[in-house]
Amino acid sequence: MKIDFNKTDGLVPVIIQDERTLQVLMLGYMNEEAFNKTKEEGIVTFFSRSKNRLWTKGEESGNFLTVKNMDIDCDNDTILIKAIPINTVCHTGSFSCFGEKAPKGFLYELEEKIRQRIDDKVENSYTYSLYQRGINKMAQKVGEEAVELVIEAKDDNDDLFKNEAADLLYHFLILLKAKNLQLENIEEILLDRNK
Questions:
Q1: Please, are residues 114 and 174 in contact by the beta-carbon 8 Å criterion?
Q2: Which end of the chain is more exposed for a tag (fewer CB within 10 A), N or C?
């Protein structure tokens, strides 16, 4: 990655996106030193224009941004960082500097929570207890939820229909984990089919 820091007097804008949901979290600026520190440590560090120094996001609050991916735009003067936020991002207490957490893309966060509950063997978790019952029981639950969704689709109660759809997606994500697959693998197939 070769960034043209000279084009913008030593500072380039940095867009931070939630790696799982793609929600835009904040905008900051980096000089070359902040960029190198971010690459080395895997935690987002900006150059604070108001403090006139390097500033690691979360250095006081503990709400760090863990870097998952860094890209540079086509003009080599803007950075896009996909990160995992620890708690809220905005100093106002909001999830993002652009507002609260959006439901769009939440399935990836839910997928991660399901993975954690299963991998950490959380005993009092419905997710883990279903997982322990084996692939046949997980597949059966997906089938049951699909049937319940079809039944609700024939009625006029949108709330019941949405709740059954949510149940189906939740159990589908558990089944994906059991098959050592991710939602992204299914999206790849859909993307290929759309070409």
A1: yes
A2: C
